[in-house]
From TrEMBL:
<dbReference type="GO" id="GO:0015087">
    <property type="term" value="F:cobalt ion transmembrane transporter activity"/>
</dbReference>
<feature type="domain" description="ABC transporter">
    <location>
        <begin position="22"/>
        <end position="261"/>
    </location>
</feature>
<dbReference type="InterPro" id="IPR050095">
    <property type="entry name" value="ECF_ABC_transporter_ATP-bd"/>
</dbReference>
<dbReference type="InterPro" id="IPR015856">
    <property type="entry name" value="ABC_transpr_CbiO/EcfA_su"/>
</dbReference>
<protein>
    <submittedName>
        <fullName>ATP-binding cassette domain-containing protein</fullName>
    </submittedName>
</protein>
<dbReference type="InterPro" id="IPR003439">
    <property type="entry name" value="ABC_transporter-like_ATP-bd"/>
</dbReference>
<dbReference type="GO" id="GO:0043190">
    <property type="term" value="C:ATP-binding cassette (ABC) transporter complex"/>
</dbReference>
<dbReference type="InterPro" id="IPR003593">
    <property type="entry name" value="AAA+_ATPase"/>
</dbReference>
<dbReference type="GO" id="GO:0042626">
    <property type="term" value="F:ATPase-coupled transmembrane transporter activity"/>
</dbReference>
<dbReference type="Pfam" id="PF00005">
    <property type="entry name" value="ABC_tran"/>
</dbReference>
<comment type="similarity">
    <text>Belongs to the ABC transporter superfamily.</text>
</comment>
<keyword id="KW-1003">Cell membrane</keyword>
<keyword id="KW-1278">Translocase</keyword>
<keyword id="KW-0067">ATP-binding</keyword>
<dbReference type="GO" id="GO:0005524">
    <property type="term" value="F:ATP binding"/>
</dbReference>
<keyword id="KW-0547">Nucleotide-binding</keyword>
<dbReference type="InterPro" id="IPR017871">
    <property type="entry name" value="ABC_transporter-like_CS"/>
</dbReference>
Amino acid sequence: MLIQALSRNDRRRFSIVTKEAVRVKELAFQYPDTEEKTLKDINFTLRYGEILGVVGPTGAGKSTLAMCLNGLIPEVIEGELEGEVYIKEENIQDFSVADVSEYVGFVFQEPENQLSQMTIEEEIAFGMGNLGVSRSEMEVRIKDALAQVGLTGYEKRSPLALSGGQQQRLAIASVLAMRPSIMIMDEPTSMLDPKGKNEVYDVLQNLKGYDMTGIIIDHEVERIATYCDKILVLNEGEVQAFGTPEEVFTQIELLHQFQLNAPQVTEFLYRYNQEYQQDVKLSTTVKEAVATFESEYTGKV
Ligand SMILES: Nc1ncnc2c1ncn2[C@@H]1O[C@H](COP(=O)(O)OP(=O)(O)OP(=O)(O)O)[C@@H](O)[C@H]1O
């Protein structure tokens, strides 16, 4: 009855939100010649359009997890893999890395390492060329991708003449033009200065709602908390927490166990509660915290 009442577009959207974009099931991985598994019994799912932030201390296994999701493990990087990864409900172990790359785009830490062409438009065309996209379609996608990352007008420039933040935005544009269903970014801002970090997160913020599922590994908890729909905390290859930013970042004591911090506002509220024996709700954004304080204290002071 409900389905019948929906328009064709609504039905399409309905089917998208109800399907899983990513399912990781009992995933474990051990590199050769190591004594312990780097990943142990990882389970989570993401729906279409959701953005996942992966946080964890150094060596937790975050990059290893990312490589299991794009098929580099175990096809290119060998080791003992257990469990399954489903992208768009297909088990990626049934496909080659090249096939998986049509659905899963990857943005690396260091932008320079992923740029190889003479001009910005050639850079964006390069990935599409490997997918067999026609010249006329490429032109449309180049224009669109540059507009999305704020680099319109830079088509003929050299990628090497861009700032770090612009280079990373170009790397994102190159992935966007390939129209993957999932975009994985492994610490895309770690090599950038604060201005570059802001540029990249502003672009990512604008991409939200573009029907693309995203996975971002980053130590920038402030930005992760506002940008992501779900957070996964990884430590020594095990999932310690998975849920919304509010569900995860309010577990301050758990985070501290793994030398991780919540956003500053959440840390402040936690310490305020401790120092003054209060029970103020822990918020993960300044806006929410202000609203909480206003409703608690207006007229009482
Ligand atoms: N090719 C490899 N062979 C053997 N061990 C490896 C290999 N690559 C990574 N490791 C080990 O696996 C563990 C997890 O590494 P990984 O890079 O996935 O962690 P990470 O959470 O991404 O760390 P960081 O935040 O420092 O990037 C580390 O102990 C690392 O030394």
